[in-house]
Design goal:
This protein has three helices and no strands. It starts with 6 loop residues before the first helix and ends with a helix. The protein is mostly helical and 104 residues long. It is elongated. The chain has a domain of 69 residues. The longest helix is centred in the last third of the chain and has 36 residues.
Amino acid sequence: MSDGPDPDRLNALEEKLKARRKATEPAPVQEHHLSQAQAGWRMVTELVVGLLLGFGLGYGLDRAFDTMPVFLVIFTMLGFAGGVRAMMRSAEEITKKNAETHDS
């Protein structure tokens, strides 16, 4: 008679249990695409953040150098351009993702 359990039988049982658990495990939920509303809000947020950042920097520089409208106008325009650029990049990314999901 043996002193302990058979290691080969225990390993075989562990493999069977792993296979059974894996078979009954639910698949992870993944969202492959953004809804149009989410994409729209993302782009609006990027534009507004660009504008506010440019406005804030311009206002701060104008207050520091006492040149009120100069930097405010320049940096607000730069913030707008940066926001539009970020929006275009997001739109391109979303378009690529949608094209990949439709091709698959």
